[in-house]
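Before going further, learn to read the protein records used in this course. The integers have meaning only within a learned vocabulary of local backbone shapes. To see the layout at work, look at the sequence and tokens printed below.
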Amino acid sequence: MISRAVIDEIHHRADIVETISTYVTLKRAGSNFGGLCPFHSEKTPSFTVFPATRSFYCFGCGAGGDVITFIMKAENLDYPSAIELLGKRVGIDIVQDEKEAGALMKRKRVYEMNLEAAKFFRECLFDKTLGEPGMEYFRARGLSSAVIKRFGLGYAPQDFGMLTRHMRSKGFSEEELISGFLCGKSQKTGKPYDYFRGRVIFPIIDTAGNVIAFGGRVLDDSKPKYLNSSDTPGFKKSRNLFALNYAKDHCSEQLILCEGYMDVIALHAAGFQNAVATLGTALTSEQARIMAKYTKKVIISYDSDEAGQRAANRAIQLLSEVGLEIRVLKLNGAKDPDEFIKKFGADRFRHVLGQSKTGFEYKMDAILSKYILENAEDRIKASGELCGIIAGIASAAEREVYIGKVAAALSLTSDSLKSDVERQRKKLYYEQRKSDSREAVNSAKKYGDRINLDAVKNVAANAAEETILGLLLTYPEHREAVAKEKIALKNEDFFTAFGKKVFDAVMELHTSEDGYDSALLGQYFTDDEMGRITKYRVDRGQLSENGSDILRVSVEKLKAEKLKESEKSGEDKFASLRRKQQMAKERKNNIKNK
């Protein structure tokens, strides 16, 4: 394990405002800082950094914790890896106990393994005997040797065990290869086999230069056409983009978002080094937020088929939610950017980039193309669809502009369309209010609580627990009162399993030789659980009454609720009586110690 002294030093050196500022644009709000949350899509800032307590909390999605928790969530890391990354940033080298690392394959090991596999695939591609099928495919797609080398492209021979044998010879175990999605194990024979066979290989490289995964494409029409690495200890496909390692240095003004690896490579080869692609899946909200870190505008250049149009509509929604300016590229005469550049050249592509349409214009064209506009009924249907889209736009200025465009296209007056838009906005408003009301009721009753599954079973007991834990997390004198038994409170007094876990962790740290430090809680809890723990602290910090009387009353309330639950569950009368007598005794001691 990483020593307490090292964690303390990293936590001290890694200024939380400075660290989070590299991910989020923060603005001072009194003694704190606020910004748009990087963990969910929002247009109104609900993310707050508290320098005084060296913590952060999002009042929108509940994410929260300290600087270590933030790095865990932002970089998809476990607790030790987040400390290691922060350590590098503040100039502290961390030496971990390899025994404690145990069977869990570390991210660094995944990177080492993937780098060796990438070298193997590349050597196979340039081998005149083994790699000829792959090289022939790339030549047919118009790729030069320089482009092939720049992207580290490779070839996986049609052999069930060549990669596995090579990797084993380099010291990687079968278990590591399976965890890294490089080989599988046959259910029939129990023997390992290579995942990537008879495919050209596209290494996925992160912005730090690590090979984190692979994509493989068949050379014919067999299925599946593409095979992509599943999530591994070193890779999460929803949080990465192909070629962002190159594009990040060329995209401050705009990014070009494509569907496929070959589209991106063709664009880079033609001089458009600001192109990226998703990794075999539809665009995710996490990927949209990543793009918002690097650029102001995204031009969507998806395939022109029906599936591409559906994907573009989803991308428009996700990208607009993170505040990006969106344009959509329509390529006439070609199904994708790769084919367009081959047919018409880079200059023509540059020209059509400048003619890309806004997200609304793209949707409007798609809707108008469905209808015969000379037909009155079709015009009414088109108007209804377009007004529905405009109604969801927050900016009044944008709504006015788009109403004018629709009015011109459908030969209608702007005033009539404006009335329809406002009617739909009212409908959306009431639907949202109903939804918010339902969510508020469910939240109060703790329905759907994924962090504290027991909370819904007794809301009153859980409320008392949250008060107690908020006080213990925030005030050392309350922890000391419990530790010295001035207030009688033990693990078995808690109703929920999560409450017990938090109480145990807090008191274990408080009574340890080095004492309590909130930075160490992350070793016991997930980043989502740390968000809930931070909420307890934030909630207490907003209240003026946080003295010992509040703690005593809350402890008595919790024990009373626990007693009720015991009686409901059929606890024998003598045991119930003993519990009541014990509670009365504790109440007297509490008054005496007050």
Summary: The domain at 103-235 is CATH 3.90.980.10 (DNA primase DNAg catalytic core, N-terminal domain). The radius of gyration is 29 Å. The longest helix spans residues 414-444. Residues 97-105 have pLDDT under 50 and may be disordered.
